[in-house]
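Progress report, Aim 2. The chain analyzed during this reporting quarter is listed below.
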Amino acid sequence: MCTIPVIVMRYLILIILCLLIAACDGGLAPPPPLELGFSGTVHFAPGSWPTDSLINLWIFASQIYPLDSAKVYSGLFASPNTIFVYPSLSGTLPFYIDSLSYSFPLHSGTYKYIGVIRQTSFDLAGQGIRALRVVGFYKDSTDSSKPGIVNVNDNYQIKGINIDVDFRNPPPQPF
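Predicted structure tokens for the chain:
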């Protein structure tokens, strides 16, 4: 009869327990939260970056379109918001780059106008809507002169919301 010494048996059990514990990955832990909203890439036209009057640069998503100056301010500052900016009103996108991959977290809803907006003056109150200029927008796949609509839901993130920006040739201003 073959007998394994007690000390070897204890080490063998300890090794098996360590392997079992290491193999556990969280078991019934909740899944990671879904990244809702949309994502894509902003492409900046080479050589088009302005050398002055660039204060902030944001990606925006508006639940209303068409826009006028009153709708822009109420959409940004009233409650509830209907216009959202990324990264935030206190932040900005990086300047003087070729492209930027982004992920814009948003609640479910229909976003009728998505684009990049440029702030050209520190005085938003005094300059009003003239301090903000749309420099590129997400285009409808069937008519590139119109904004594309994005329906964000609670199940997954919408990918491929790409925006082209050419500071020298901005689109017609919606407000």
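The longest strand covers residues 38-44. The helical segments are 6-23, 69-77, 124-127. These observations will guide the mutagenesis work planned for the next reporting period.
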